[in-house]
Amino acid sequence: MRVTVIGGGMIGLCTTMLLARDGHEVTILERDAAEPPDPADAWDHWERRGVNQARLPHLFLARFRAFLDTELPELVTDLEAAGALRYSVVGQIPAELTGGARAGDDALDMLTGRRTVIEAVTAARAAVTPGVTIRRGSVVAGMVTGAADGNVPHVSGVRLDSGAEIDSDLVLDASGRRSALPGWLEAIDAAPCRDEVEDSGFVYYGRHFRSADGTLPPLIGPARFDYGTLTVLALPADNGTWSVTLVGSSTDTALRALRDVDTWTRVVRSLPLHAHWLDGEPLEDHIVFMGKIEDRIRDTAPGGVPVASGLLAVGDAWACTNPSLGRGVSIGSMHAVALRDLLRRADGMGPLELATGWAEATRSTVEPWYRTTLRVDRHRLREVDAQLAGETYETDDEEWNQLRALERATLASGDILRAQLMTSMCLVLPEEIFSDPAFVRSVIEAAAAADDEPTLGPDRAALLETIGGTHAG
Predict the structure, then answer these.
(1) What string of H, E and C letters represents the secondary structure of the chain?
(2) Which end of the chain is more exposed for a tag (fewer CB within 10 A), N or C?
(3) Which pLDDT score, from 0 to 100, does residue 47 have?
(4) Percentage of the chain exceeding pLDDT 70
(5) pLDDT at 473
(6) How many angstroms from the chain centroid is the CA of residue 150?
(7) Is residue 423 domain-resident?
(8) 152 and 12 together in one domain
(9) Could you count the other beta carbons within 10 Å of the beta carbon of residue 429?
(10) Does 338 reside within a domain?
(11) Whether residue 100 is found in the same domain as residue 2
């Protein structure tokens, strides 16, 4: 099958390699013209204009590492040779809290690094994969259509802004958050997709660091931790580098001062579990900011009827969420495997049947992950809004209350710790973790005991004083 993939980001590259290894001829069309540099130079010299979060902190979760180990082991070798970090969270925590090492703990290991470094290595591996052609500087202007299946238009290729056309048996939209899919469909008189879109409501203020000796700061608190209205992300990366990001509500106007380096630094220094993550050489002389990030899911088969055949959306082109949970690439890799597996069963399927099957596979394999991620986002935002109003957030959403209890009870036992990591690493859905009533009771009891412990970090008043420069932390 001749497959055209629109977008040469992480999911476009990984999907391409999976399909090429199954014998498909795959062409990637990437709008950014710049060739990926050597991984050692990627951070300093590759702007990656087409990925608005490329310079922001990244964490590649255990789900993505498991995908690589199983599906693309050669890429794992390349990444580790380039300095990507295989990181065991369990191994960083004292044995008295974990109960000691257990069989299966390696399932929680990550393979992580800065986005440009990881993508440069992945692009290099894709470029030498038999059956793969990568065309950079190729901007897709629209779709080419063939014989329709009833009232459903059929996409038979793509048209570039140069006017050139590329014939395809299947076109995959892997162009990410900025996907132009709705416009492409409108131009071929397809029925509209059904999009659910809202501002995620979060803003991000981050900075990267490097140690002099290649070591990383010790993990004395969770990598992601909520200090009241502020969330901190302390994320290990490649080659002795790491990042620190502060995340807050876009309505919290006091946080806008965090775009100033000195203010941002004062606030991080006031966070007792994470202040030491500043003890390195900054890789930027400014704070990297990102806001106006959408939560969006796109239904290309509303009512079970595809709006077009021959054109399928993968990864963030299908659905994207608040990046602070780090799930985008992990969910995208699941989506790529689901597509590869669908095409293995596609002999005898017509284009419309394939599009219908893709919609069904998407709903069953990855949509539950999108929905649970969105649930966490919405509740966290409401929790922050309540705290800003001086109130305590309460909800009757049992799963959210259980997830919150699981976070508070994380260090109460090795079982609870591992359950929390399984959910946060995108390995197990919360409903599976909470299917055992006895385990739920143990979590609730441990969380109640943890609630009696002193609050860590600054309260809202102290945070505002620190932002204003009147509180030392």
Answers:
(1) CEEEEECCCHHHHHHHHHHHHCCCEEEEEECCCCCCCCHHHHHHHCCCCCCCCCCCCCCCCHHHHHHHHHHCHHHHHHHHHCCCEEECHHHHCCHHHHCCCCCCHHHHCEEECCHHHHHHHHHHHHHCCCCEEEEECCCEEEEEEEEEECCEEEEEEEEECCCCEEECCEEEECCHHHCCHHHHHHHCCCCCCEEEEEECCEEEEEEEEECCCCCCCCCCCCCEEEECCEEEEEEECCCCEEEEEEEEECCCHHHHHHHCHHHHHHHHHCCCCCHHHHCCEECCCCCEEECCCEEEEEECCHHHCCCCECEEECHHHCEECCHHHCCHHHHHHHHHHHHHHHHHCCCCCCHHHHHHHHHHHHHHHCHHHHHHHHHHHHHHHHHHHHHHCCCCCCCCCHHHHHHHHHHHCHHHCHHHHHHHHHHHCCCCCHHHHCCCHHHHHHHHHHHHHHHCCCCCCCCHHHHHHHHHCCCCC
(2) N
(3) 84
(4) 99
(5) 39
(6) 38
(7) yes
(8) yes
(9) 16
(10) yes
(11) yes
Residues 438-469 have pLDDT tens digits of 999 999 999 999 887 777 889 999 999 999 97
Length of the chain: 473
Has residue 471 been placed in a domain? no
**Which one of 248, 265, 292 terminates a domain?**
292
Instruction: Answer yes or no: is pLDDT of 211 > 60.
Output: yes
Categorize the per-residue pLDDT at 471 as very low, low, confident or very high, splitting at 50, 70 and 90. low
Q: Convert the pLDDT of each residue in 230-240 to its tens digit.
A: 999 999 999 99
Q: What is the pLDDT of residues 247-278, one digit of tens each?
A: 999 999 999 999 999 999 999 999 999 999 99
Instruction: Based on the fold, state whether residues 303 and 364 are members of the same structural domain.
Output: yes
The burial class, CB within 10 Å (0-12 / 13-18 / 19+), for 222 is buried
Return the bridge partners of 258, or none: none
80: amino acid identity, one letter? E
In terms of residue numbers, what domain contains 37?
A: 1-197+294-389
Last residue of a domain, one of 268, 292, 316: 292
Treating both helix axes as pointing N-terminal to C-terminal, what angle do 367-388 and 328-344 enclose, rounded to 10 degrees?
Answer: 160
CA 207, 211, 216: angle at the middle one, nearest 5?
85
